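Saturday, quiet lab. Running sequence design on the C-alpha cells for the scaffold JK sent over.
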C-alpha cells in the first residue's frame, strides 16, 4: 500500500472511531466535564503505550521533537475535544456532526487566508453552500434553544481545521506525542469543573472504551494519517463520521434529527459531496 493509500485508510478508521462519540455521551450518565476527565486519562495512557511500543529507547527524544507545531496541535485538539463533548450535551448529535461536516471547507478557507493556499472556484462555491446549510441548522437551534451547542460544534470544526493544516504543514514532525499531550491536557483543563470521584463499574468500563476506542484510536489514526494526505482531503474523508454518528444514536437511542437539522444537513452534505466529486473528476482528467 502506497503512502497516500495508507493515509486514506487511517483517516477512514479515524472517522469510524470518532463517529461513536454521540453514542458514548448518551450511554454514560455523567456530566460532560467528568467524562472529559476520565476519557482523557484513558486515551492519554493508551497513546503513551503506543508511543513507547513504537519508539522504545527513543521515546523521550520523540516527545521533545514535537516542538511548537506539536504543542499547537495539542492545544487545538484539546480545545476541540472540550467543545465537542459539551456540544453533544447542549444540542442534538445530528447538529454536531453535520456542522462538523463543514470542516473540509473551513480547512480550505483558513488555508487560503492563513497560508495563501489558492483554492478553485468550486471549493469557494461549496464553502458558501455549506455556510448556508449551517445557517439553516442554527436558525432551528435558536428556536429549539440549542444555539450554544451549535456554536460549540462550530468552534470544534474551526479548531480541527487549524489542527489539520498544522499537521500537513509540519508533516515531518512526529505528531503522535502531540496527540498524547492533547489527551492528557484535557483532564488538567477540566479538573476544576469535574467531579472525578471513582464512577461505578459500568460507567468506568464505558469510560475506558470511550477513551481508548473512540478518542485514543481516533486521535492516533488521525494524527498518523494526517501526515500522509492533504489537510482538505483529510477533512473531506472525515465527513464519513456524519452519517455514522447519526445512525449510532438513531438506532440505539431513537434520537431522530429535527427538520432544521435534516434540511441544513442535506445542504452541507451536498456541498461536501459535490466538492469531492468535482475534485475526483479533476484528478482523473489530469491523470488521463
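Result came back. Writing it out in full:
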Amino acid at each position: 500500500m502506497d503512502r497516500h493509500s495508507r493515509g486514506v485508510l487511517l483517516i477512514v478508521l479515524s472517522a469510524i472511531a470518532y463517529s461513536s462519540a454521540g453514542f458514548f455521551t448518551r450511554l454514560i450518565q455523567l456530566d460532560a466535564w467528568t467524562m472529559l476527565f476520565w476519557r482523557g486519562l484513558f486515551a492519554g495512557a493508551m497513546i503513551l503505550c503506543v508511543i513507547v511500543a513504537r519508539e522504545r529507547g527513543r521515546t523521550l527524544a520523540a516527545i521533545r521533537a514535537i516542538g511548537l507545531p506539536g504543542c499547537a496541535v495539542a492545544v487545538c485538539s484539546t480545545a476541540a475535544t472540550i467543545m465537542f463533548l459539551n456540544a453533544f450535551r447542549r444540542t442534538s448529535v445530528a447538529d454536531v456532526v453535520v456542522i462538523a461536516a463543514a470542516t473540509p471547507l473551513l480547512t480550505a478557507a483558513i488555508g487560503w487566508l492563513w497560508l495563501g493556499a489558492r483554492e478553485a472556484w468550486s471549493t469557494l462555491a461549496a464553502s458558501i453552500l455549506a455556510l448556508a446549510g449551517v445557517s439553516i441548522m442554527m436558525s432551528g437551534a435558536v428556536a429549539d434553544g440549542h444555539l450554544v451547542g451549535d456554536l460549540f460544534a462550530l468552534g470544534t470544526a474551526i479548531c480541527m481545521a487549524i489542527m489539520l493544516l498544522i499537521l500537513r504543514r509540519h508533516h515531518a514532525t512526529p505528531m503522535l506525542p502531540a496527540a498524547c499531550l492533547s489527551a492528557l491536557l484535557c483532564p488538567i483543563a477540566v479538573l476544576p469543573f469535574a467531579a472525578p470521584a471513582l464512577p461505578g463499574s459500568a460507567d468506568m468500563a464505558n469510560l475506558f472504551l470511550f477513551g481508548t476506542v473512540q478518542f485514543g484510536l481516533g486521535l492516533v489514526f488521525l494524527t498518523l494519517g494526517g501526515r500522509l494526505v492533504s489537510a482538505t482531503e483529510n477533512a473531506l474523508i472525515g465527513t464519513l463520521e456524519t452519517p455514522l454518528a447519526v445512525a449510532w444514536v438513531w438506532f440505539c437511542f431513537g434520537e431522530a434529527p429535527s427538520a432544521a437539522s435534516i434540511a441544513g444537513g442535506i445542504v452541507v452534505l451536498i456541498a461536501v459531496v459535490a466538492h469531492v466529486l468535482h475534485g475526483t473528476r479533476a484528478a482523473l482528467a489530469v491523470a488521463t
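Notes for JK: The chain is about 80% helix and 0% strand. The two ends are 22 Å apart (CA to CA). Ask whether to fix the surface positions before the next round.
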